Amino acid sequence: MHNMINHENLGLVTGRSTGRQDITHYYITNSITEMKLGESSKGSSIFPLYIYPEEKNLFESRKINLNEDIWEKLKAISEDQKHGKPNEVDTFDYIYGYLYKHSFRKTYAQFLKSDFPYIPWPKNSDEFWNISKSGSFLRKLHLMDPAVIQNTKNIYIGTGDNKIEYARLDSGKVWINDNQYFDNVDELIWSYIICGYQPAQKWLTDRKNRHLSNEDIKHYQSILYIVSETNRVVKNDEV
Question: Exposure string (b/e) for 9-38, b if CB count within 10 Å is 16 or more?
Fold first, then answer.
């Protein structure tokens, strides 16, 4: 975890297993996390992209946390005239993108529920860069990069004090009290599971009896958008 503290970094978060096939237990972080971010029952693991020297070795530089032999083979497969050779972030995005491929999850569901994932080699450079591009989008989406977030669909409607008295989905509306709700929320988005949790529900229920600020409202709209876009990418197997 020290590699994520006060350092620029990306971390792949996952659990060794969940025992279930219906849970997506792959996520991303750019900071420290609590131990169950990757799944809801056991301790998660974080695989940092960069390894930073400890204080006693301050004169050393950070290292890329990729196996050199494997990475060189991947570069040889993926190099093309348009993109050149993939750097470490391109490679990270390829891994993250592959973890969200619907066909990958379906084919290896039995294995993915019981151990860390094995990422297949790309068939060619086109496949690598297509998956890496989608992985880049998912990375930015899940890290809440403002450049990829839109908040226009799930309008917040009603008058009141913005107090979360409950969280209930009814006919496409997420009600937080008797007078106020977020509109146009699909049942699938409301119940969508990431890392063992249902973020559209959990974020509200964890804040019961709190009054939402304008920033809170925008943040929750971002969550709904992120979940919706994640589902779209996975469902369409865009990666």
Answer: bbbbbbbebbebeebbbbbbbeeebeebbb
CA angle 206, 211, 214 (to 5 degrees): 105
Three-state secondary structure of the chain: CHHHCCCCCCEEEECCCCCCCCCCCEEEECCCCCCCCCCCCCCCEEEECEECCCHHHCCCCCEECCCHHHHHHHHHHHCECCCECCCHHHHHHHHHHHHCCHHHHHHCHHHHCCCCCCCCCCCCHHHHHHHHHHHHHHHHHHCCCHHHCCCCCCCEECCCCCECCCCEEECCEEECCCCCEECCCCHHHHHCCECCECHHHHHHHCCCCCECCHHHHHHHHHHHHHHHHHHHHHHCCCC
**Residue type, position 122, single letter:** P
Q: How are strands ordered across the β-sheet holding 181-182?
A: 156-157, 181-182, 173-175, 168-170
| Other CB atoms within 10 Å distance of the CB of residue 196 | 20
Range with lowest mean pLDDT among 80-94, 126-140, 186-200? 186-200
CA contacts within 13 A on the Cβ side of 86: 30
Give yes or no for residue 58 having a pLDDT over 70.
no
Contact 25, 181 (CB under 8 A): no
Task: Over range 63-84, report the average pLDDT.
Answer: 96
